[in-house]
Amino acid sequence: MRATMIHAAHDIRVEDRPDPILRHPTDAIVTVAAACVCGSDLWPYRGFRETTEPHPIGHEFVGTVTEVGSAVATLSVGDFVIAPWANSCGQCSDCRNGVQVACAHRAIWGGQDEQGLEVDGGQGEAVRVPNADGTLVVVPGVAEPDEALLKSLLSLSDVMGTGHHAALGAQVGPGRSVVVVGDGAVGLSGVLAASRLGATRIIAMSRHADRAEVARAFGATDIVAERGKEAAAKVSELLGGVLADSVLECVGTAESMDQALRCTRAGGALGFVGVPAGGAELPIGVLFSKNITVAGGAASTRNYIPELLKDVMAGTINPGLVFDTVMPLEEAAEAYGAMDERRSIKVMLTP
Amino acid sequence: MRATMIHAAHDIRVEDRPDPILRHPTDAIVTVAAACVCGSDLWPYRGFRETTEPHPIGHEFVGTVTEVGSAVATLSVGDFVIAPWANSCGQCSDCRNGVQVACAHRAIWGGQDEQGLEVDGGQGEAVRVPNADGTLVVVPGVAEPDEALLKSLLSLSDVMGTGHHAALGAQVGPGRSVVVVGDGAVGLSGVLAASRLGATRIIAMSRHADRAEVARAFGATDIVAERGKEAAAKVSELLGGVLADSVLECVGTAESMDQALRCTRAGGALGFVGVPAGGAELPIGVLFSKNITVAGGAASTRNYIPELLKDVMAGTINPGLVFDTVMPLEEAAEAYGAMDERRSIKVMLTP
User: Fold this and answer.
1) ipTM associated with this complex
2) Are A269 and A247 in contact, with CB atoms under 8 Å apart?
3) Which residues of A touch B254 (CB under 8 A)?
4) Which of A285, A325, B30, B330 is the Cys-Cys partner for A344 at CB 3.0 to 4.6 Å?
5) Where would I find the Alcohol dehydrogenase-like N-terminal domain in this sequence (chains A, B) (predicted)?
6) Which chain A residue lies closest to B281 (C-alpha atoms)?
């Protein structure tokens, strides 16, 4: 099969790789219909995280089950499935607590499973999925989704569930004012999640017309271009002299976290899902004196797929709008470049 | 009147001070029936916070209203009242959001009000209370509480409400396992708050027999003497191989916060109310990967007095047990010494 490998910073190659085969009775093989590049894939791409040896990459994909191990109970050959960005056994105490990202048996896509066997990355033609029952979610009644549906299903693998996680962490609900810091695919998904949870005042922070347009389509009522202190002043002005009840931090840098905290009112809630990088901090003194609740972290999107999928299938949300570009898998290197240079919000790759 | 002044580290004096008089129409004068020394009073006492000039001290008191300003609507002369540790106007957006500690018009006890007039400390014979309507809570039907009731009412000024705030931040409820880090008056109050909120498994951390005894009286099911990693291992052992759902951090040091985080399961909640000191941090990477929710901070105890008071008056909780020592106001310096050296859990001072 063909699959994407990272060799070093700025060195992404699509190469021939062995076709995946079942290695454990709990495995399934999935033929990938679509995959994508995550903002977090850009960390090793940019060299902020070192790539010590070449390995498969990608952790968001959807596709069709082509083989199942003897112990797989909930999946059949032919099922169209969504793979969450983190696989999970579904049975350990962390999984039972709904924190699948902390699963004791989690394997890293493009890394190794707990038996030390290589696990495929998501950006390839096929993937061996460990703990398939605990990981994959079947899309009922769908065999070959069209491109629009494919995009929305793929968004449930990570960005839409991550935006939803941020919104829950920020205690979004009817009557709560919302600020979303970050206009990447996760931030935009956070806008949609906030709208879906009943917020009617949603301030998205963006300086890019194309992203602001998606934010408005997702329910943003205001777009703020200012940053830092000025951003907080603008939020206060828009909200009649108070800061926001709920703030979603969807970037992960020191600047974005600072901006998010400045926009949160005393007693408000901050949902943070941006992978912490570049010195991002949660200053205990500020949280203490302002009574800001902080929740979020790596999203267990496995949890959220069933309820979000229902809304996708009903047509009440269209999270796939974050994919503004589609490329063939062979152009994965260009996909990384487009996202790195922010020429694209998010790229869908089709093998 | 006689009132307690701090002159410098380890220099507490009870002195003659001017009797308080009404300065604003929204003021009330309260004759103090009982006051106490807070763990946070020990910071300047120990010199960890500098005392640049002598000033009145103390922020927890109960007593009888003896005068009210012309604009005071909810209080009458003769009312027995509880003063929360933070006064508040009750009308600004922060107060209306239930975050009275962030009140735009808050005056610091023993400091100045927003007009720059001196405000009395709580450890004295009488106190001018700014924004009396927004600050004081009347104890209905009580004119002269006996010593046991006096202790419980006084605890609602700060420690019991603060323990309750920690428990809410830690999302304590029926079926949740609870760990309380800190065996001071706030930590012990946190045990009682957790028990009151329906937790049936409460692990208190203590190395002092007298404090452990109060913890058990308040509902602790287990006492753990270990610290750091060993404490977390013991918690996991007691809970059958998992960490706690809810952890209350009631100290505020780097060590106690680290211990609290180590005891929290992935996806669990940490309620923190210990005033941050000595390098306490909220490490963003740990919170992100473990999905730990953090809430708490300075407690707006004003909010909680009505519901906690109901339980005190009904006799279903007895938070006054944290006062193991009673001294006359004139011995305030000795009260500080007793708390500093941990000879006393908490001292009640009676003028």
Assistant:
1) 0.95
2) yes
3) none
4) A325
5) 25-133
6) A284
